[in-house]
Amino acid sequence: MTATTTVEDVVDQPLGVYTRPTGGNGWRDWITTVDHKKIGILYGVAALFFFVVGGIEALLIRLQLATPNGTVLGADMYNQVFTMHGVTMIFLAAMPLSAAFANYLIPLQIGARDVAFPRLNALSFWAFLAGGIVLNLSWVMGGAPDGGWFGYAPNTGIVFSPSPGMDFYALGLQITGVASLMSSINLTVTVLNMRAPGMTLFRMPVFTWMMLVTQLLLVFAMPVIAVALFLLTFSRLFGARFFDPSVGGDALLWQHLFWIFGHPEVYILILPSFGIISEVIPTFSRKPIFGYPFMVFSGIAIGFMGWGVWAHHMFVSGIGPISVAAFSLSTMFIAVPTGVKILNWMATMWGGRIKFSAPMLFAVGVVSMFTIGGLSGVTHAISPADTQQTDTYYIVAHFHYVIFGGIVFGLFAGLYFWWPKVFGHMLSDGVGKVNFWVMLVGFNLTFGPMHVLGLQGMSRRIDSYSPGFGFELWNMVSTIGSFLIALSIAIFVVNVIMSAMKARGQAPCGPDPWDARSLEWLTPNPTPVHNFDEVPVVESLDEFWHRKYGTDDDGRVVRVASAEEVCEDGSAVGVHLPPPSFWPIVFASGLPFIALGLIFNLWLTVPGGLLVVMAIYAWIFEPVDDPDAAHGDHDDHEGDEAAADTIEEAPVV
Amino acid sequence: MSDTATSDHATTTGMTHNKLAMWVFLGSECLLFGALISTYLVYRGRFASGPAPGDIFDIPFTSVSSFVLLMSSLTMVLALSAIKRGDLRNNRLWLLTTALLGSLFIGGQVYEFTTFFREGLGYTTSPFSSAFFTLTGFHGVHVSLGIIMLMSMFISSLRGSLRKEHSETVEIIGLYWHFVDIVWIFIFTVIYLVPSPTS
Amino acid sequence: MSTTEITDRQDDVVHDDGHDHPSDSKYFQIALILAVLTALEVATYYVDIGSALIPVLMVMMVVKFFMVAAWFMHLRFDSSLFTKFFVGGLVLAVAVYVIALSAFEFWSKG
Amino acid sequence: MIPKILRGTGLTALAVGLLAFLTGCAADAELDTLNPQGPSARSIDNLFDPVFYVAVLVFIFVFAGTFIIWWRFRDDHDNEEFPHQFHGDTRLELAWTIVPTLILVVISVSTLVTLRGLNETEANAVTIDVDGAATQWEPEVVVVGQQWWWEFRYYLNGLDGVDLTDARHLPPADIVTANQMVIPAGEEIELAITSRDVIHSFWIPALNGKKDAAPGRVHPWKLEADGPGVYFGQCTEFCGLSHSRMRMQVVAVTPDDFSAWVVEQLQPAGEPEAAAAQRGMEIYQSQCARCHVVDGFNDGSGADLVANAAPNLTHLMSRTTYAGGIFNMYEPNGSLDRTQLEAWLRDSPAEKPAYAEGRRGMPAMGLDEGQIDDMVAYLTTLGRAPALDIIAATEVE
Ligand code: HEA
Ligand code: HEA
Ligand code: CUA
Ligand SMILES: [Cu+2]
Q: Are A248 and B126 in contact (CB < 8 Å)?
């Protein structure tokens, strides 16, 4: 990806930045890195790549549906494409893009050197990538999954989906799931355990808070889908009878397990975005976030309540009326904490002096567009009404408004906002604004009409529709809109390339381009490999901002220090850093072999298993080759501890 | 600067990363076993034309092997207590005993599975059989991983690289081991002792 | 080489000293209680106690469960943060799956 | 038709105007969810409309706020001066916690009331006049989904004692039909919905919301049409390859017409007279009877299919659409649409995607043109065409 090359170029520039003697910026360094920043960038690049893949699948969907009786794909291919679109977007684009932000920013926002388990972090990334590759290999190895991202049994059983596609689905998602679980444990420990002195929980930026809640949701939600996927895998590969109605298998078991995971999952997707805009909005409004504790607690409340609403995806599935009523009510009330957030963002902007730069535009886009999706969500929560809406395009409209309007806009806000932090140069704000407006128009053209289509009765997951139901016009509009979205993505890509070219050979942008508030801006741009020269001591929320500004006697804000004075220069040397390691990628590369072996030929699992076992073994006994090890002033116990630690996550070497 | 990613002494909470991570992981495992147990409970009455749980469970036998596993928790905690005192010899002894008790349990499970299989309960016989073998199989895999870890510690200890200052490693693996034990406490009661449907 | 040692004790901190862990004889006592409880549990298989069976079994199970967690896993002595995670996961799991089983009408149909 | 929600609210006047203009051409939106034609659908609509307005109001509130903010507080930071810094206001926070809560409490109550209504059934009965002997039938229809068509089974003695647990082996019913469900208008029909393979979902938007058809489960649901008419539906749970081509219709007729329909459906098929039709019958015997049933000719002992059933053809001609309700049996003038039927018999998977090799869906039978002609001749003897107005109303494109 273009982004990578840019990174290298920029990072390469000698900024007086400390570079590790052994580390370069060649490909070898990327595949062995355990640095949370590089891993964050890797996540970002992979996620954006898969976003384009999923987007192209979306465009195919839209082409097929542009006119009645579409013939672009055909029924079989259509089913594979929409399934892979959902899976790719959710698991390979949205989640890892959030992970990119989490990895890059959490340690910086809490004043830490790295995450708690850097090698595990690398493993999480490579395993995610392995899972993504497994999923997409299905295209050329017998057919992609064709049972929908929700994979309802028994349609996904071997009788009804005889191609290996659903095996790829089950195993690919299992691998990405394990990756997410590892990463969530890692980040949870990081946030709890590695905060800089003075960084109490209630001095953490809202972004870090929302990420913490997200990681906790992941910790508890991933095992549930893991079980669901195991049941599916064992049914398909070993003939288990979980979903075979002829012997009493229950079709609803899968649905419960999937949605017990699935609903927390949608909050896993949205909370990072909420976190991002909670950083962007105060910065550009030049005001502190309004109601910080309420922001935090509403995020926690959303995470909590998200566990008690899953059956709203099953209102017509035949669960009893009492369940329907209970889940209907619990679902509605999630609107309350979410509303608290929306209104607090508005109150943050209210009375501000708002600069509508690109990040801010995207953030305001979230506030308004997500609200549309949230409100249609409330109309689904009314269970009797949902019996009319479910599985129609009205639902598709709902979730693309929350997902695209809430997540994609939020992530773009984050990309524009933190781009200088990561790469040391700004993205063009002018192009960014164009990007935003084209995206906003395209997005509304694409998904707005779907409300109408759904209420007119157009079903989801149909590869074609007949003329005469009144679907023609709006489908065409929607298809046109989707190409506008594609255009906006292309504008973004152009912006990335052009900005990188412009920045080539130039000094990096200043340390504090947005007059920002949180700790990550204390480090120079781009962030030096060791993060902070000195671990900051935190005295307040918005620590960085408070180092720049004070109040005069009238209570007015006055600048007390320039950004240059406050920011570190990244000149520290001899900082102890976790050395790179080969084993995460070796470990992860075994996983696709195991998956393919289970699907096609058990012998393949042997090399896969060997790779994994070898990696675990080597991981434990990995020699300490850190040039700075002697410098480390914590008790250096690697050498002897190595033998002691078994398959447990060993202390990071 | 001491604040490295690995420094055990500089954590915010005062807990080491490893121990905290293990507890978070165990919290996560609750959801995993919960899903498996629920699956079993939904399906325990759906034995199609195969044997029903009430027909084949051998409570006295399972009681013995449950007791074995329970006692392995005692030996585990004794191993920890020993290494904390610096008593490496007893540490090794108890580690080995724990692993042996665990293996005994696994042996019992293998025996149970083969007996059930001979009585007509295959993995694909019915939703009940699939759920039963999956649940107990997952538990068995957890125990087996635990045994591997215990044995690795035992070998490290023999080689002299598991010493008093590493007691936390023993403690963390002990946490895992106890967790697997309490899962079985649950399984033993809910799946075996609570009367099951018969055909 | 600065800062961290003292200043980083924060809101949620309970320090893990490890020195007040129980003695081995305490562990044997706990194990004895666990053994007796298990014996009682198994006894219900032989002695008919009617409708009390399930509540009694559940109570004994929960007691065993928490004794292992509290003593052998040291939750009694360790940071409350661990308890929060574990009990959090446990309570969440129980709540979610009890609701799910209710949706299957498990309690009425079994 | 313009979705009703967008009509006649001052708040959305602009949107309405635009929509009215843009959707004006789409005259026949037969699946419109906002155009209820029966009590259940109406109760849902009556709940949805006000909630939708509330949502629009909240949306306008947020949007107006955003615009005001954009208008009043935009500033390019030309001067360094900061606005007044405030961190929050507990009273405001409480207000915007409590107000939405109250709104939602009201919505909850009406949701519960509607939900209860939808789950209540009434005891009713229609009189059916068979050979001069009137019998009472409490209207209940068994709805069975399978890839990719619907079967409707009528048990005139009621469903008590009819074992529906295994949808692949259902007890013989008095009337078995496919894709078109005929009901008496103005009566509440109870449905027992199930499936023979994967999950489908039964949905007639004008009459009620949807309900899944899941294998191994029987889901109760109900329908009632205000008056005679034809109501379109679509399978809405993704069920594999031809999910989009799994449609159905409800034909509501007057009680008298219904009684007449029942009487006719109870007739078994007779022996055809014309030679071509007789040849067709022989082909049927040798090629089709392994799956299909024609009452009075071969009984329904199961089909060579995963679902164990293919459409019952006894009264094929009384249905105006076939193959999951996607083809017309008749031309608008009432004559047989021979071309389509022949195409179907020639190569059905080409007409409607199926996995015949996996025993799901109708395979290509490999008949030659002569055999096809004979087959059509035989099929046209099976049942009688309905009235022209029904043919016109049920027409699909
Ligand atoms: C980012 C992801 C995301 C988010 C955040 C949400 C948020 C919500 N969702 Fe959504 N949902 C999905 C992603 C998401 N959803 C997906 C992917 C599906 C489809 C899955 C599939 O089938 O493939 C789905 C499906 C779905 C359904 C099932 C529909 C069906 O299939 O029949 C329901 C039903 O209740 C629902 C409800 C809600 C509700 C009530 C919220 C609430 O959290 C929204 C709360 C927000 C607001 C309400 C707006 C702001 C509030 C105010 C301004 C305060 C004032 C408001 C009031 C007084 C009302 N969603
Ligand atoms: C994160 C989640 C996410 C995102 C971002 C999207 C984005 C989009 N989705 Fe979504 N979608 C889902 C998640 C998501 N979707 C899910 C979960 C389902 C349900 C699946 C199921 O039922 O199983 C679904 C289903 C779904 C359907 C319904 C299919 C059906 O039911 O039959 C449709 C139909 O229009 C659709 C359309 C789109 C479109 C047009 C976009 C667009 O916004 C996409 C825009 C992106 C691009 C267009 C990128 C491409 C860019 C370029 C090509 C230019 C790049 C140029 C260079 C590299 C130089 N999606
Ligand atoms: Cu049947 Cu969709
Ligand atoms: Cu949901």
A: yes
Q: Which residue of C has its CA nearest to A537?
A: C3
C-alpha distances (whole Å) from B55 to each of B52, B112, B116, B134, C46 are 5, 14, 10, 19, 16
Given the CA of residue A389, which atom of ligand 1 is nearest to it?
32
Q: What angle do CA B55, B57, B63 make, to 5 degrees?
A: 155
pLDDT score of A563: 87
Residue C48 inside a domain? The answer is: yes
How many domains, chain C? 2
Q: Are residues C47 and C70 in the same domain?
A: yes
The separation between the first and the last C-alpha atoms of chain A, rounded to the nearest angstrom, is 30
Residues in chain C: 110
* Mean pLDDT across D110-127: 94
Determine whether the interchain pair D69/A350 forms a contact, defined as Cβ–Cβ distance below 8 Å.
Answer: yes
Domains of chain B, start order: 56-193 (1.20.120.80)
Residues C87 and C74 in one domain: no
C87 in the same domain as C68: no
User: Is there contact between C and B if contact means ≥3 C-beta pairs under 8 Å?
Assistant: yes
Same domain flag for C60 and C89:
no
Measure CB to CB from residue C3 to each of A220, A535, A633 and give the nearest one: A535
Nearest to C105 among A200, A219, A320 (CB): A320
Rounded to an integer, the average pLDDT of D151-155 is: 97
* Residue B185 forms contact with A (CB below 8 Å): no
Instruction: Give the model confidence (pLDDT) of A198-216 as tens digits.
Output: 999 999 999 999 999 999 9
Q: Which domains does chain A have, with CATH numbers?
A: 33-571 (1.20.210.10)
Compare A649 and D65 and report the one with higher pLDDT.
Answer: D65
- pLDDT tens digit sequence for A146-157: 999 999 999 999
The whole-angstrom separation of Cα D222 and Cα D191 is: 5
Based on the fold, state whether residues C71 and C87 are members of the same structural domain.
Answer: no
Query: Which of A533, A537, A646 to mutate against chain B (most B CBs within 10 Å)?
Result: A646
Peptide bond just before A154 cis, omega within 30 deg: yes
ipTM over 0.85: yes
C42/C91 same-domain check: no
- Say whether residue A186 is in contact with chain B using an 8 A CB cutoff: yes
The reply to whether C61 and C30 lie within a common domain is yes
Considering chain D, tell me which residue range(s) the CATH 2.60.40.420 domain(s) occupy. Answer: 131-265, 275-394
CB A312 less than 6 A from any atom of ligand 1: yes
Q: Whose CA is nearest to atom 59 of ligand 2?
A: A490
Q: Which residue has the tokens 């009566």?
A: D187
**Ligand having the closest approach to the CA of D143:** 3
Task: Name the DSSP letter for residue C19.
Answer: T
The whole-angstrom separation of Cα C58 and Cα C50 is 14
Tell me if chain C has a CB within 8 Å of the CB of B189: yes
Q: How confident is the model at residue C14 (pLDDT cuts 50, 70, 90)?
A: very low
Q: Is A143 left (phi over 0), alpha (psi -120 to 50) or beta?
A: left
CATH number of D131-265: 2.60.40.420
Which residues of A fall within a CB distance of 8 Å from D43?
Answer: 384
Q: Choose the mutation target among A193, A246, A268 for the interface with B, i.e. most B CBs under 10 Å.
A: A193
Q: Left, alpha or beta for D38 (phi > 0: left; psi -120 to 50: alpha)?
A: beta
pTM of the entire predicted model = 0.93
Cβ of D193 less than 6 Å from ligand 3: no
H or E stretch at A390: none
Distance CA A417, CA A395 (A): 31
Q: Whole domain around residue C97: which residue ranges?
A: 79-110
D210 vs A252, A285, A387: nearest CB: A387
Q: Which CATH class is domain D275-394?
A: mainly beta
Question: Are B71 and C31 in contact (CB < 8 Å)?
Answer: yes
Instruction: Judge whether residue C72 has pLDDT over 50.
Output: yes
Asked if residue C40 and residue C58 are part of one domain, the reply reads yes
**Does residue C1 sit within a domain?**
no
- Are B24 and C85 within 8 A, CB to CB? yes
Say if C90 falls within a structural domain: yes
Interface test with A, best of D14, D30, D85, D92 (most A CBs within 10 A): D85
